[in-house]
Amino acid sequence: MFARLLTATLFSLYAWLFAVGAMAAGLKVGMSADYPPLAYLQDGHIVGIEADSAKAVGAIIDQEMTLVNMPFDQLIPALQAGDIDVIMSGMSVTPERSEQVLFTDSYMDVGQMAIMTTDKVGHFSQPWALYSEGVRIGVEPGTTGADFAARELKDAKVTFFDDSTAAFAGLRSNEIDLYIHDAPTSWQLATSNENADLISLYKPLTSEKLAWAVRKDDARLAARLNDALQLLKRNGTITYIFNRWIPVTVEVH
């Protein structure tokens, strides 16, 4: 009996020491650095809202946050495989994703927006125009913009683009009428001189929440991230980060 108790105690101690050692090693943070102003590459470094948030969270929980750049569609598989510990990459909370990951509290409310060339503003200034039969819509596969088009724009002609750069080219060549993507893509247009011929109506088509994600069985890490997020909200740090990178007003909850 004593031997079994000693063995169980030693096992618990080893498990605790392993957990502490893993925490001391820091956290690997998965980001898809092709999504300004949330996360993108500048001079070979990942910058943006998520990069600043990771640094601020790391200071609060006293752990080094190592940023790992990878394609967006590889983030959840990498998290589940243990290659990264947390996703901080402008990820919208959806029922499908919630079955695969554990989301933290939301740090930002956003929505899908429609981007077009400036010469089409008059035609699409009325909300109903988007839903007209035959409208040519561009979306990125696997995004909530693609989900919106499939669900709400059944009479539209939908074309898929790998990223915003390709979709912008599609707008300029008149291959599509509108490109539907997350609000941050529209915000970036407000400060981009190279995209002065493009414009967003800044009218959200959907209501979505962005959050960070951890593995389903890592409720402890989710709780620590939530505590850090609440502190960042209370002391104004998260608002400061948003104002640094976003030229328009967004809601913080």
List keywords for this structure.
253 residues; D-Maltodextrin-Binding Protein, domain 2; 2 domains; 10 helices; disordered N terminus
Structure, explained:
The structure is a single chain. By secondary structure, this protein is α/β, with parallel strands linked by helices. The chain folds into two domains: 20-108 and 210-245, 3-Layer(aba) Sandwich (D-Maltodextrin-Binding Protein, domain 2); 112-200, 3-Layer(aba) Sandwich (D-Maltodextrin-Binding Protein, domain 2), CATH 3.40.190.10. It is built from ten helices and 13 strands. The chain has helices at residues 2-24, 49-61, 75-81, 95-98, 121-124, 144-152, 164-172, 183-189, 219-234, 237-245, and strands at residues 27-31, 34-35, 39-42, 45-47, 65-69, 86-87, 102-110, 112-117, 136-139, 157-160, 178-182, 198-200, 208-214. The strands form four sheets. The chain has a five-stranded mixed sheet with strand order 10-9-11-8-12, sandwiched between helices. The longest helix is centred in the N-terminal third of the chain and has 23 residues, at 2-24. The radius of gyration is 21 Å and the shape is globular. The model is unreliable at 2-24 (pLDDT under 50).
Number of helices: 10
Low-confidence stretches: 2-24
**Secondary structure category:** alpha/beta
Large-scale geometry: globular
The radius of gyration is 21 Å
Strands of the widest sheet, in order across it, are 10-9-11-8-12
CATH second-level architecture of the largest domain: 3-Layer(aba) Sandwich
Approximate strand percentage: 15-25%
Order of helices and strands: HEEEEHEHEHEEHEHEHEHEEHH
* CATH topology grouping of the largest domain: D-Maltodextrin-Binding Protein, domain 2
